[in-house]
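Q: What structure does this chain adopt?
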Amino acid sequence: MGRRHKGRQLDGVFLLDKPPGVSSNGVLQYVKRLYGAAKAGHTGALDPLATGMLPLTFGEATKFSQFLLDADKRYQTTAKLGIRTDSSDADGKVIERLEIGQHVDEDLIKELLLKHFSGLIEQVPSMFSALKYKGQPLYKLARKGEKVEVKSRQVTIFSIELLEYRPELGELDLDVRCSKGTYIRSIVEDLGLMLGCGAHVTVLRRLESGPYKAQMMITIEQLDALAATTEGESEQQRNQRLDALMIPSYSPVEHFPKLNIDKAQQLLLFQGKPIELQQSAEPLVRIHLQENDKFLGIGEINDAGILRSKRLLSTS
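A:
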C-alpha cells in the first residue's frame, strides 16, 4: 500500500485574528483543516480569553517561527478594578473584593505606570500561565491546587499608555508595547495592588507581533466566507483564493539583511559547505537566489567574510 496522503504542502504565514473563548491550538487545528495543510504551527499561544494577533506558520515557514516567539509584542487590555481573581483575569475565581478609594484617579494611575512599569522590570509569571515547570504548564498545576515557586524574570516595557479611565465603572484601558515573555495579567495585578483596590484583566487583545500589524489580520468569519465554495467552482480555485491570504515564509526574518547568491553558491550551501564572500560580517542574513529572488533560508557571515547556513528550506 502507498503512503497515505496527509495534506497538501503549503508554505507561508497566516495572520489570524483569534476569537475569544477558544484555545490557540484549537483555532490552529481549525485553520489547518480548512486549508487541508500537511504541517502547521502557531507562534506564541494566547489565553482563551485573549483575542487578536496569532501568526500561524505553514510548511517551511515553521522553521522560522522562533523569530516570532522572540519578537516584541503590542497589547491593549481592559482592567477591572476592585476585584482580584486567582488567575488575574476574568476566567479565574474571585478571591478578593475591595473598595476603589477616592485617591484613585488618572494622575495616580499614570504616575504608577511611569514609575513601576516602564523600561526593564522584574515580573513573577502567574501560576495560571503556560510557562512550564518540570515539563508541566503552570496552569495545569494551578488547577490541581499545586503551588510551585516561580522565579521572577526580566522583561522590557517599551511603552505603556493609559488610554482611558472610567471611574464610574471601575475600569481602565492600557496600550502596552513590550518584549517577549511579558505577562499583561501580572502588570494589571501589580497595578491593582499598588492602587490598593486590586484588579484583573477582562479584555486582552494582541495587536502586533514582530513585523505584523493589526490591519493585516484575518478573522475566522472572513476565512470561513472565503473557504466556502461556490457552484461550479473547483477545489483548486478555492485553494488559490485561500492561499492568496498567506504571506511569505521569509516574513518572520524579513528584517534581516538580504543576501543574493548564484546557483553555484546555492549548491555549495545545500551541501553544507561554507561560501567565501567579499562582505563584512553579519550575524544573520536572509538568503535569496539571485536569478528569481527565491528565498532559500538564513545564514551567518563571520568576520572573515565566510557564509554558513543556519536554517535552509527543503530542497525538494
